[in-house]
Amino acid sequence: MVRQFQHYADLSEADIELLDSLEHSPEQLPAERTVWREGGAANELAVLSEGWACSYYTLEDGSRLILDIYLPGDVIGLREFATSEHMATVETITECTLCRFPHHHLTDVFAKSFKLTRTFFAIATTQQSILVERMINLGRRNASNRIAHFLCEMYTRLGRMNDNMNGNFRMPLSQEMLADIMGLSSVHVSRTFSQLHDDKLVERSRHNIRIPDMDRLVEHAGFTDNYLGTRSIIENRA
After folding, report:
1. Residue 36, class by beta-carbon neighbours within 10 Å (0-12 exposed, 13-18 middle, 19+ buried)?
2. 2: helix, coil or strand?
3. % of the chain beyond a pLDDT of 70
4. Per-residue pLDDT tens for 10-31?
5. Where are the domains of the chain?
6. Above 60 in pLDDT, residue 232?
7. Which residues in 161-199 are b (16+ Cβ under 10 Å) and which e?
8. Are 213 and 164 in contact (CB under 8 A)?
9. Based on CB atoms within 10 Å of each CB, which residue in 54, 128, 145, 225 is the most buried?
10. Paired residues of 46 in beta bridges
């Protein structure tokens, strides 16, 4: 969590101690375990210390739309800080280490650190911006551009926590999950990856992704990372 926050701000030792206080009592969860359900009482947040998780809406026909992919260091539940009920179900994708904390602990952090208050706000708005990009993906990009854009986003987000990725990363998402993120069928997802492979843009082997030429994939996707938050912009607005 600290490394994630350091992308947005230069933290003092006191700030780091405050963040560490939110990661007490880690909880080990297996893959495909529900963290909380849509409609349940929203009285806590969580820090994802290890693993991957997601949030999703269940539609009337029983299908689902995946909204968020959470990576290590992400804070889960920020959008629901002002609501009485969880707006979406959160579920682990892989084995995870999760640290839950009640809303009032976040209020305590706000009272003690202006810098962390600003950083939490920046992270919440970044999460909202990711949702906007997801809407653009669903409504205005074709299948190839959707998947390419999503891969660029995952690579960029993971790169903030991992040095020297060299065009390779692990993405533990099933074909069905990718379909639920992209608003496509599983068959269409498979065909699109085949096309991206034929175009020498992406190589996929099970959950392993290799991007031979990141610049080409970025151009194909029309991807810019501005919506993922930039420290210089945040500090200039302090």
Report:
1. buried
2. helix
3. 96
4. 889 999 999 998 888 899 999 9
5. 2-132, 142-228
6. no
7. eeeeeeeebebebeeebbbbbbebeeebbeebbeebeee
8. no
9. 54
10. 76, 100
CATH architecture type of domain 142-228: Orthogonal Bundle (1.10)
Residues in the chain: 238
Give the 3-state secondary structure of residue 42: coil
Residue 84, number of CB atoms within 10 A of its CB = 8
Which residues, 6+ apart, have CB-to-CB distance to 3 below 8 Å? 73, 160, 161
Sheet holding 75-76, edge to edge: 27-29, 96-102, 44-50, 75-76
The token duo for 166 is 């060299």
User: What's the rounded mean pLDDT across residues 34-57?
Assistant: 95
Handedness of CA 64, 79, 131, 178 (dihedral sign): negative
Q: Which CA distances in Å does 84 have to 38, 48, 66, 156, 157?
A: 11, 22, 21, 33, 30
Query: What would you report as the CA-atom Rg of the chain, rounded to the nearest whole angstrom?
Result: 18
pTM, entire model: 0.92
Digit-coded pLDDT (tens) for 122-176: 899 999 999 999 999 888 899 999 999 999 999 999 998 888 889 999 999 999 9
**Res 237: pLDDT:** 58
CATH number of the domain at 2-132, please? 2.60.120.10
Largest Cα span, the chain? 54
Cα 211 to chain center, whole Å? Answer: 20
